[in-house]
Amino acid sequence: MPNTQTFVVNGTMRENTSDFPESFLSYDLDTSEFKVLPFVAPDDFLVVSSLRFSPDGKYLAYSGERGVVVEFATGVTIQESVGGYWVDNQTLISKQQVGERQYRIVSVDVVSGQVTTLVDGEAAAGMLLFP
Question: What is the pLDDT along the chain (131 residues), one digit of tens a residue?
């Protein structure tokens, strides 16, 4: 987590199936304690390959097959089908697949939920996003 001595990890409690979805835990370096966080990945979300906090630590974007943004303290899902990189405390830039070999680059305001297309079509297909 930004500006803390706490790590966030994810993993399955038993098997990696929809009966035992990906869980999230925090580990505090100062107290050496694990804490189960108040959310799990959606049932059909079997792999989490990336965890990214907003700069202020209020939101967590995680991705695998697709992306999800949650309010970190409560675990409330803000957006699904969004993964990407934080621009500021509430804005993500994401590359989304909208069809076979069709992509778009979008800006997502996680507070309002507004998605703005920045680049669409062939130009978006060749773009790489870097944090």
Answer: 778 888 887 766 555 555 555 678 888 899 998 888 877 776 666 677 788 899 999 998 888 767 788 888 888 888 876 678 899 999 988 888 787 878 888 998 988 888 899 998 888 877 777 66
Q: Is residue 39 part of a domain?
A: yes
Q: How many independent structural domains does the chain possess?
A: 1
Residue 1 falls inside a structural domain: no
Q: Kindly state whether residue 121 falls inside one of the protein's structural domains.
A: yes
Is position 31 within any domain?
A: yes
Alpha-carbon Rg for the chain, nearest whole angstrom, is 16
Would you state the torsion angle of the CA atoms of residues 116, 102, 67, 44, taken in this order, to the nearest 10 degrees? 140
| pTM, rounded to two decimals | 0.73
**What is the Cα–Cα distance from 125 to 36, expressed in whole angstroms?**
38
